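Re: beginner question about structure tokens

> Can someone show what the tokenized structure looks like for a real chain? I only ever see the sequence side.

Sure, here's an example I had lying around. Input first:
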Amino acid sequence: MRPRLRKSGKKPIVATMRAAPGKRRSVSEVDRIQLEGIHLAFGTRPVYRALDCRFPRGQISVLMGGSGAGKSTLLRLMAGLIRPDQGRIVIAGEDITTLSERDLFRVRERIGMLFQGGALLDAMTVFDNVALPLREHSKLSEADIRAEVERRLAAVGLPDTGGLMPRELSGGMLRRAALARAIVTDPEIVLCDEPFSGLDPLNVRRIEALLIELNRRLGLTLIVTSHHLPSSLRMASQLVFLIDGGAVVGTPQELLASEDTRVREFLEAETAGMPGFQAVPEVAS
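And the corresponding structure tokens:
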């Protein structure tokens, strides 16, 4: 059974999530990814200052925060595309900040990436886009690749679309095809950068439902950046709110009840009028 975060009325955990006294959790047992003491600056602009956060295995975590808070940058750090100035990034027990580029590639095989806008190659068919990671990084036969690609396209609700070109797909279909490419190598972790950006409300709900279904059916650890608060509140087991170079971490209910005014102001502006959500839990009179 996959571990789940408990939902309670407690205050959100700031910066890091700690094990219960007397019971030290190992990264491999509970946390698929752990970031400790991350410092990063671009020139003179600091992005993170001693950032700590963990991402539980088999759950959906959503990264939130204002523009420029470093949400997409955090995904790039976890994918090993950039390195922090200081700190540790532990993925399934391995600190990737100490790995050579060759060893880092081995860790990346465990990670799928859904890029902003899908990022399908325009000159390739949908089939060839999804097959690309297998052709580049596996020794499967073409027959096996075809079977795997068709299975993944069916899993995201796009059977019989392999012969189409990306320009022939709607925005929602493009995002689903890109998700098929992200999971075609059977990763343990999928990093999703703004999967709802630019989609109409109906397609937002479709992509949201698909991510939840893939998480439940395949046991994927999903880490999603998003500005779409309603979907984030519905789908997330954990919210990681990036602010002032650090993170406030908790369940959606915990962050909605946060005593941190910076978090409250951000969430209240977005949840005003949303049925089923309230910033402060009602107290019985």
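Each token stands for a local structural state, so reading them left to right follows the chain. The chain is about 35% helix and 20% strand.
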